[in-house]
Prior knowledge:
Elements: H1 2-23, H2 30-38, E1 39-41, E2 47-49, E3 66-73, E4 79-84, H3 87-96, E5 108-116, H4 119-132, H5 135-143
Antiparallel strand pairs: 1-2, 3-4, 3-5
Helix pairs in contact: 1-2
Amino acid sequence: MLLYIRLHFFKLQVYYNIILAWAHGAPNHRKGLGRVARLIPTRSGSRRRSSRLQLGSSHKIKSMSHSVYIIQSQITKRLYIGQTNNLKKRLERHNQGKVIYTSKYRPWKLIYSEKYGNRSETVQREKYLKSLKNPKYILEKIISKQSGPVV
């Protein structure tokens, strides 16, 4: 009986730490959650390691739209390809100089974007566009198919 009470108390502590870490914006990887939150007790009492936050079945993850975007420096005409879940904020960060690579070539103008339902599709498309490595090809084949930027 005492073992059952201790195990139940441990489960409550773990879930409390997970929710607390999640509420304070801890990243979804092992370093941000600490040792206690990484050991998630299962119903059988055994512990398993978890690299994701587990908040129970009632917690629903918001679906966000992710975007792949191409911006162009208005000074050097250099292209930059990236992906984000908030295109407006990301473009502001580029133009404020908060992104190291793009800070030297400000100001930037959005010339193309595509929206996707999840991050994995967005990352795949970003990798494909970056693999092209030819700005002329990107401008001719990808961007010219569209009349203007999709925002």
